[in-house]
Amino acid sequence: MPDLVDGLAIRKRLGRKQWSLPRPLGPDGFSYIAHNGDGRPVGIVIVTGWYEDDDRDERGAPIPWIHASMQRPDGVPSYEDLTLLHAAVWPDGHAYQCFVPPDDHINAHERVLHLWGRADGTRLLPDFGKYGTI
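== DUF7694 domain-containing protein ==
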């Protein structure tokens, strides 16, 4: 899975001046730290890839997925933060923020937001803007 997450390309799209070099995270991901002018961390991004056993293409091969998250030490990431994360990981594709029932909710950190999507950015939901409204 080494080609699933391109750590340097993601850092370039995040912004090389603000975001650290990618640090390997597990067998299939990277983490990045953003710093402000005085060196204090102001954000963390984690990007990991995986294969969902039940999700297979027409040849029966597992389809790769990516999870990306961002956290801020002083509050929940903003809409602008999530659009940056989306553009960095899926520059030409679709990703989703999910709201699940309380029994399925896992909160590893109180100020983190997540995006999920197929590695190829394939749209998985209907085109809600098809008739000009969302």
